[in-house]
Amino acid sequence: MHRKSLVFMSFFGSASLAFASAQAMAQEVATDMPDILSGDASAPYLPDFSYAGYEYGLAPIPHVTRAIDVADYGAVPDDGRDDSAALQAALAEAHAMEGPVRIQLGAGRYQLTEILWIERSGIVLAGMGSGEDGTELYMPRPLNQIDDGGALDELREYLVEYNKRERLPHLNLDVLFSEYSWSAGFVWTRFPGGRHATYLQSYDRPIVEVADIASGQMATNQLTVPDAAALSVGDVLQIHWHNRAGENGPLIAELYGEDRSGFPIGDRHWMLPDRPLIRQATRIEAIDGTRVTIADPLLHDISDELPAAFARWDHLNDVGIQDLAFIFPENPDFGHHNESGFNAIYFTGVHNGWVSNLRIENADAGVMTDDLANVTIANVRTGGDHTAHYSVHVGNVHNVLVTGNEVSNPTVHTFSFNTQATRSVYLRSTGWEQPTLDQHAGANHQNLYDQITVHVRPDSVTEAGVPSFDLFRAGGAGYWSPGHGRFNTFWNLQVIALGGVAPGQTLRILEPTGGPDARVIGLYGNRPLHLDYSPAPYTEDLNARQINVPSLYDYQLSRRR
């Protein structure tokens, strides 16, 4: 049975989904093509998410054959000795070489007490696998006891200047946020001298504009430039859109629609006009006079009203981290924004890269990201009893694909689209410990949750006795509200109630701080579900699994191929 709705499903309002109907639909499947994919001109807009991932979704992760054996530099697994110097020596050798190279670790446990920096294209850090008889990196102490060479000085100054504090009077806690809450890792990729996250205006650098763009249409790969002399096929650049028109400028309308009366817009959207509000990293595929073809469709229109330009982007290419386990000792949970720095990977400044086949235990953060495009993060499993801030975090990125993320540890933000994330995807991933689909504000938009399964227990009950779960509980500062921009999409989202909801009883799913024009297609579970999402989303197949198009990403990718 096929259903669609543009109605806000207020739980107590007249548009509420009747409990009896919800119970009847709990086990239904939708076998017809969703209306949103009809191709009809009247169908609601849906971005093409299939460009997410390595090489715009069209190429497998490469295998690098030339290898450096860390044993040749003195790294010996399972001997109880610190291997940091040997691993750093192997990395230094790789940086001195030219061309792709794999730094290969053997089976067993290596101890690491320093940061491993990857600052050259073509370097792959690899183990023998993330499971039994694989490779473990063991970090006995956190990053707050390790010298980062000043890499986080700007962030530290920012926290002090803006007095960013975690205040919990009932716990007698009043401390500055930790710089490790959303930054840093024991394996850290970065472009040398790059600034992959921006905090203080005093650190801002001049933007190097390569070429103005005259016009372009959203969702197309074609644009025109006044002069293409500075452009070359193969260039990987960013397209920048600035909001220099204030609170009611046309770029705000692009992000949040013309009618914004139902939700606040934070002032960060217009208080820093010299910083681009939206960035799209892309590659130039063809140039014909003043017509330029880019590798992926434009996020937004470009015109005199919505000006944009190509800007230089300093980045690495073809960097990978694979086939490893990151093991941290059991450690206390000091609370939100008070992490000590048991962070596995900080992946920044990379185009066409990958993180794959990892196991991460007892971390404050598994994989965190900044300033990426077309990266695949595949088959990352996070576990342990320690509460992590993030499992795999997606922020300040474009076209990032996270697939096969299994989260069995408790997390504050489980599957997170963070500040300025665009057209990125969580695919076929599962959360077990009260997981969240965190839409973290900060102008994140056109992102996709696809075939996500969450296992939950109610965290509240209405006055009428209806169990509820705040699945979309999110973070993000108020100056970046609302929770997301237009066209964030959910496709075949499965909610499994582990307890607290009787058979046939309805479970209420909450998103009180979302954003405009969300799309929810195929929300179902082992109990009847009632969706309470604000502002009103476009919905089809509520309490029904969409089986004709089980994965939107796969469907769109197959059509491109």
Automatic annotation (TrEMBL):
Keyword annotations from UniProtKB, A to Z: Signal
Highest taxon in the source lineage: Bacteria
Entry coiled-coil feature ranges: none
InterPro entries with a match to the protein in the record: Pectin_lyas_fold, Pectin_lyase_fold/virulence, RHGA/B-epi-like_pectate_lyase
Domain Rhamnogalacturonase A/B/Epimerase-like pectate lyase: 68-130
Signal sequence, renumbered to the chain: 1-26
Pfam families assigned: Pect-lyase_RHGA_epim
Gene3D superfamilies, per the entry: Single-stranded right-handed beta-helix, Pectin lyase-like (2.160.20.10)
Name of the molecule in the record: Rhamnogalacturonase A/B/Epimerase-like pectate lyase domain-containing protein
Lineage of origin: Bacteria, Pseudomonadati, Pseudomonadota, Alphaproteobacteria, Sphingomonadales
